[in-house]
Specification:
Layout: E1 2-7, E2 54-62, E3 90-93, E4 96-99, E5 106-115, E6 121-125, E7 131-137, E8 142-148, E9 156-158, E10 189-190, E11 200-203, E12 208-214, E13 228-233, E14 240-246, E15 263-272, E16 284-291, E17 297-302, E18 305-309, E19 312-320, E20 327-334, E21 340-349, E22 353-359, E23 366-370, E24 376-381, E25 387-394, E26 397-403
Antiparallel strand pairs: 1-2, 2-5, 3-4, 5-6, 6-7, 7-8, 8-22, 9-21, 10-11, 11-21, 12-20, 13-14, 15-19, 15-21, 16-17, 16-20, 18-19, 22-23, 23-24, 24-25, 25-26
Length: 411
């Protein structure tokens, strides 16, 4: 198999100007707002990583018959199995190495279409046009979701775990833009209750929390970002000299923005802070509001259903985005007198398959993994970091499926 490398414009999320006027030891520029150092100013595309990054672009596999293809002929297993004819992918032409593949036998089987700033693969595509994507959290350091049959911008996961996450170095003042952003409700993200991990979103009686997303037409995915080069006159030579390089927002990593006409699945977990000896919670709702031309709105209300497992009940609903839709809003609401907690929100296309992950924000250990139906597998560790227990969430409750004990010999 050949892996083909090429220098590609890597889509980035970068911010540099600090949100506070207070001087920081990491400052190079101070201000009162975070701005993109790629789209809000002139920049050097090589310093910022837009150009000059050599990344794996496509992987090719050579297909051909073996030399020993007649089953009636005896073969020597120690030496048999070579290709009948092999053509190299690269060849020397005019004293330089050129790409001259046999397109009938060198077949590509995967292509990476999107990277993040740390070099992580965000989106890949196969020859049939099927996409796979991954979402990174904890300041783009850890994968928090993988999804099959979906583009990166078409799926999202929010576990409310890394809004207070920070590293020991610089770069915490203006963090990267989030794929799905509940930062305006950061004060409501608490550790009182949690479905997985350590945090959840708390809504007091009568409160709601919602985020809106601009829908993106599929044809816009084919428009590649362009660099604009500004020139200024040179009095010495009379020729133009490079003055500035700029670009637009298409060079940035897209946030969650599904396409009109798609059928989507929304899933989440909810808990009401009350002694509910009931079949189902009734004091909460998950509402999807779709806005079309002329500010027309279509709302779809979902209620939690199924078993209440250790105090938590699952949402799962299906909605369609009309072909003329422009925006979609996902809102979680407390409609009764009880405090309500929401956790592990997922949105993805109906034909997609998602798994999501939650990590401990301090030691970075995997705490939980949610399967295709948003049911969790929990991982517990001892003080030395050794995995001691694996528990699985089912409709009949949380069951321990594996437990181990180990110890060092004491002298």
């Amino acid at each position: 198999m050949k892996i083909f490398f090429r220098s590609i414009p890597v889509m980035l999320l970068m911010t540099a100007i600090l949100p506070s006027k207070a001087q920081s030891p990491c400052d190079t520029v101070t201000g009162n707002a975070c701005r993109s150092i790629v789209t809000d100013t002139v920049f050097n595309p090589y310093v910022m990583g837009v150009l000059g990054n050599w990344k794996p672009n496509k992987a090719f596999t050579f297909y051909d018959r073996r030399a020993e293809s007649d089953p009636a002929t005896a073969i020597n297993l120690r030496t048999a199995g070579a290709y009948n004819e092999f053509t190299p992918y690269w060849d020397f032409r005019n004293a330089s190495l050129k790409e001259v593949p046999d397109t009938f036998r060198w077949v590509w089987n995967s292509e990476v279409t999107l990277f993040n700033r740390n070099g992580g693969e965000l989106e890949t595509r196969d020859p049939l046009g099927r996409y796979s994507a991954g979402q990174f959290g904890y300041l783009t350091n850890l994968p928090i979701a993988v999804v099959q049959n979906s583009r990166y911008r078409e799926s999202a996961f929010e576990g409310f775990e890394d809004y207070h996450f920070a590293t020991m170095g610089c770069g915490n003042d203006c963090p990267p833009n989030r794929h799905i952003d509940f930062s305006s409700y950061k004060s409501s993200i608490v550790t009182d209750e949690k479905h997985t991990g350590r945090s959840s979103l708390r809504l007091n009686a009568g409160e709601q929390a919602g985020v809106s997303f601009l829908l993106t037409r599929p044809e816009s995915d084919t428009i590649m970002p362009q660099l604009s080069f500004g020139l200024k006159s040179n009095s010495c030579t009379g020729a133009g000299a490079l003055d500035k390089v700029s670009t637009d927002s298409r060079v940035l990593i897209p946030t969650f923005s599904p396409s009109p006409g798609q059928k989507m699945v929304v899933s989440a977990w909810v808990k009401e802070a009350q002694d509910c000896k009931c079949i189902s919670y009734v004091n909460n709702q998950l509402v999807v509001i779709i806005k079309g031309p002329g500010e027309t709105q279509v709302s779809k209300v979902f209620n939690a259903s199924g078993s209440i497992i250790e105090g938590w009940q699952r949402y799962e609903g299906i909605f369609e985005l009309p072909a003329d839709a422009n925006y979609v809003t996902v809102s979680m609401r407390s409609i009764g007198s009880a405090t309500v907690y929401f956790d592990d929100l997922r949105i993805h296309p109906f034909n997609a398959n998602m798994k999501s992950f939650v990590f401990h924000p301090v030691n970075m250990r995997l705490m939980a993994e949610m399967d295709e139906n948003n049911y969790a597998t929990f991982y517990e560790y001892d003080d030395e970091g050794t995995l001691t227990r694996v528990k699985k969430e089912t409709q009949r409750g949380i069951k321990t499926i594996k437990e181990t004990r180990s110890a060092m010999v004491k002298e």
